[in-house]
Specification:
heterodimer, A: about 425 residues, alpha/beta, TIM Barrel, 2 domains, 6-stranded mixed sheet, 6-stranded parallel sheet, 21 strands, about 20% strand, B: about 325 residues, Rossmann fold, 5-stranded parallel sheet, 4-stranded parallel sheet, 9 strands, about 35% helix
Amino acid sequence: MKIDIRNARVIDPASGRDESAPVFIADGRILAIGAAPDGFRPDRTLDAKGLVACPGLVDLSARLREPGYEYRATLESEMRAAVAGGITSLACPPDTDPPLDEPGLVEMLKRRAESLRQARVYPLGALTQGLGGARIAEMGELAEAGCVGFFQADAPLADLNVLLQALRYAATFGYTVWLRPQDAQLSHGGVAHEGEVSTRLGLPPVPEVAETVAVAAILELAAATGARVHLARLSTAKGVAQVAAAKARGLAVTCDVGIHHLHLCDRDAADFNANMNLVPPLRGPRDRDALRRGLGDGTIDAVCSDHTPVDDDAKQVPFGEAEPGATGLEVFLPLLLQWGAEMKLPLPATLAAATSRAAAILGIDAGRLAPGQPADICLFDPSGHWTVSASALASQGRNSPFLGLELVGRAAVTLVDGRIVHPA
Amino acid sequence: MRNLQLDAQGRLVHLLSTEGLPRETIQHILDTASQFVSVNAREVKKVPLLRGVSIFNVFFENSTRTRTTFEIAAKRLSADVINLNIGASSTAKGESLLDTVWNLQAMDADMFVVRHKEAGAPHLIARHVKPGVHVVNAGDGRHAHPTQGLLDAYTIRHYKRDFANLAVAIVGDVLHSRVARSDIHALKTLGVPDVRVVGPKTLLPAGAERLGVRVFHDLADGIRDCDVIITLRLQNERMSGPLLPSAGEFFKAYGLTPERLAVARPDAIVMHPGPLNRGVEIDSGVADGGHSVIMPQVTFGIAVRMAVMAILAGNA
C-alpha cells in the first residue's frame, strides 16, 4: 500500500521539522517528505488540509486489562481507543491477573495485540514474581519474550534489599527498572494528598514524604548499582527537584508524569468525585505547576496517559473505596496540546514529550516522522472541539475526570506501519 | 460547583456537612431546635409534624448512641422510623452501597439518616436518590458529623447567647475527628472569631490552620481565656502505637483536669461529644463538675435532630 499525505503541517519533534509538505509512504515506512520519490504512484491520497501530521504518540503506560480484568476492558476495546487517540506505540504495565511475570503470558499478549493490527504493544515485565515484592522475576526470559523493562507497578517491595538486588541484577544485563516512587508504609491506607483538602474531606492522607523518601532511596540505590532506572508517575514538586539534582550529577535516571497530573490537583477532588481518585494522588496546585514546568524543561522526560479503565461499579462507591485511575488514551492528545498551549511551547516541543522523548525511554524505533522511519503517524485537527462523554469514548473505561467537559484536538487519522487503523 | 445540600432556591435538601451551609440556614436550624426543646420538656413529647413520613436509619457503621438519638427525634415528630444495621447484613453479602439505597428507596423512604466509615458516602447517596428524598449525614469517616456540629453550636448559643466574642478550643484527636471538623465549620460560619485546635502533632491534621483555626500544642496555651472547651474522644486503638505512647501520657499532657481548667475563663463551659473516656481526655472532676454541659448537649441533640428532619421534610 502506497499512501501520500497532502497539505498537512508536518511536525517531527526530534529534528524540529515543522513545515507544510507532502509525506510519501510505502511498505510501512516513510519514503520521503517534500519531493516525491521517482515514479511514486500512490494507491491512496489523504488530503490533510487543516491537519497536523506528527509521529504517532508513544504512551509509556496504558493498562489494557488483559489478562484477568476483561470485565474492565479488553484488548479489542483498548487498542481501538489507543489509535482513536493517535497513539501508535504503548507500553503496558505488568499488573494484570496473573501479572506479566512469565514469558508465556508476555508472548500471548504480544501475539493477541499483533493480531489486532493496531497500535504496537511493548509489555513491561513484572520486576518480582507475581509482583509479590520478594523474589525477582526471570528478567532474561521476559526480555527475550519482548519485555522492554521491568516494573513493580503499584505493588510494594518487601524491603530495600530486594530493590538493591533487583537493581544489581538488572544492571548486569542492562535492563531498565521502572519504579513508582511511593513508600508503601508512609502511604499506607492513604487515598488523597495530605493537605488542606484531605483535612477538609477527612480522607486518609498520602503525605508528600511518601514520595520524597522513595525517590531518595531509589536514586541512591541506582547510583550505587549503576542500574538504569525509570521513575514512573512523579507527583510532587520535591520529586521533580530531586530528579533534577540527580540528573545534574550525571545519574542515568529518567522519569515520567501522568497527563492528568499536569492539569488537576487535590482541589478538583473536593466534591468526592471518585473519578479524581488517582494513583499517585492528585497533589497540591504547586506540585501540579512544578510537574508542568518539569516536563517543559526536560527534567521530566515524558508524559504518559497512565490509562486505567475502571468499570462504573468500582467508581460508584465512596471516594476512598473507589478503584483508582482514569481512562486516558483518548484524552491524552488534547490534554497534551492544552499543556503545551498553556506553557506557550511551540507545537514540536509539545509533541516531543509524548513521541521522541517517550520512545527514547523505551529504547524503541518510534516517535519520529522522518524518511526511513516506520510509518506510524497521527493526523490531528488542532482546533477540533469535542466533548468527553461515555458515547464519545472507544475505551471501555468511561472513568474520566473530564466527563462532560470540552477538549480541543482529536486524532482524525492514525496510521500504523503504513496502514490506516483509524478511523476503522 | 453546585452545593448538593441546597436546592436552587437555597432551601436545605440534604444535610451532609456544616461546611458550605449559609449562616441563615444554620440559624434557622438552631431557632427551630429551640422550639422543640420545649416539646421535649412536655409530658407528651410528641408533635404530629412528620406523620406519614418514613425515615430510614441506615447505619453502615455501628453506633447505638447516635442512632438512638435520631430514632427518638424522628418518633417525637411522629415519623415512621426503620432502623437498619447494614454493617451486619447487605454489604456483608456483597451488595453495593447504592444498590442498598435504591432498594430502600423502592420501599418509599422519604429520608435516609446515614452513617458510613467512608468519607463522602452520604454525598454519593445524595447524588443518586430521587428528588424529594433527603439524606442526613450521621457521620462519614473523618469527614463530617453535621448534627453534632449543630448541637454543639446550639449548646454554645444556649450558654453564651452570642458567638461574636467567643474563644473556643477543641482539644485532642482532631486528626480523626469528624466532630471537630463539623464544629469548626459551624462555629466559623456563625462568627466565632477565635477557634483553636489543641493536640500533639500526631493528632492534628495537615493544614489545619487553613480551616481558619489557630493551632496549639500546649494545653494551657490552647485553652487560656477560652469561653468554650470541647474535648474529643480518644479512640482506644489510638491510645498506644505510632501516634501516642500511652493513654496515661496523653492524659498528662492533654487531659482536662480542674486545675488545668483554671486558665480558661471563669464561666467557661466544657463539652464532649461522648462517649467519655474518664481519665484519658477528661478528668471526672471536670466531666461531672460545674463547668460541664455534657448532659445538656445530649438533650439539645434530640431537638437539633428534630429541627433538621422537620426542615428537610418542609415542615418547619
